[in-house]
Task: structure prediction
Amino acid sequence: MNFVDLRSDTVTQPTPAMRRAMAQAEVGDDVYGEDPTINRLQEMAAEMMGQQAGLFVVSGTMGNLTAILAHCQRGDEVILGNKAHTFLFEAGGISALGGIHSCQIPNQPDGTLLLEDIQAAIRPDDPHAPITRLVALENTNNRCGGTALTVAYTRSVSDLAHRQAISLHLDGARIFNAAAALGVKAKELAEPCDSVTFCLSKGLCAPVGSVLCGSKEFIRKAHRIRKQLGGGMRQAGVLAAAGIVALETMVDRMAEDHVRARRLADGLKEIPGIVLDPGTPHTNMIFISLSQSIPQDASQVAAHLKERQVLVGCIGPRRFRLVTHYWIDDQAVDATLVAFSEAILPS
Ligand code: TLP
Result:
């Protein structure tokens, strides 16, 4: 059965070109640095992020964890948003595995952290306080609606941090969505940062993996940490091969997902009982709620949608997230609108 799966862009299947590249990939032992396909992916990724080097990791979560462990010692502090994926959805890995303290400051609705809030959160040189070592941003910001942070904003945070010898990490899981929405190169968004992770397995459609990029020295350090985390892979060029196809063929089509998200949102707006978040969609995510006039809750509506072969993410008792991606075409958008109009029963 063919479902229209809007739960996330993580559900994307590899394309036929990716599967072919995987079958034919030249491989070697990557723990020895001998997998030519991984080496090529890492070089391509570093180039696209305007960084010196890259490291292939299993997931976005592992990329962020590896980066934060490389920047911080036990007891150091990272400043991040209270809606950051690293804070909300990475199982507390930075504190569980790294003893790293997090200082959460409010994410603004556009995904930014106020410069004055960052400044106020930076600890004084006082033995009572942890050492502020790192600021982390997220672009696009998932829980702020898939909002894109601009180049100017990223630079302003980088300048503020660097003036005080603090590093900047970017969770750029969806940096290519941000770049498409802003009409800039991903490199411009990543260059002001000391490290950046981006995901191959979301909108870019590869089955596995993320790349962590930074300076040569930083990546050397990160390489050892990846090993400590059990993330040293062997003939994983079969995975990297799909990542290379992703970088070659998927980056320039990202805007299509944004156009479809807009079309889907415009249709949903016309269905009585559906309330769109202000400004949604910013990129490939649509955030909606059920109005009080609807007797069902989100899980009941989701169950009705599932009967109509449409899958959506429930992110609250009356709230949904819908994410467009390569496998959501115009027909899928139309089918979703029909399914919603049938599934929602006004009282
Ligand atoms: N996000 C997933 C879920 O974990 C919520 C999703 O469906 O959106 N950074 C950001 C901004 C992310 O959105 C995600 C995944 C990650 C990191 C982690 O990536 P993975 O799943 O590869 O560990």
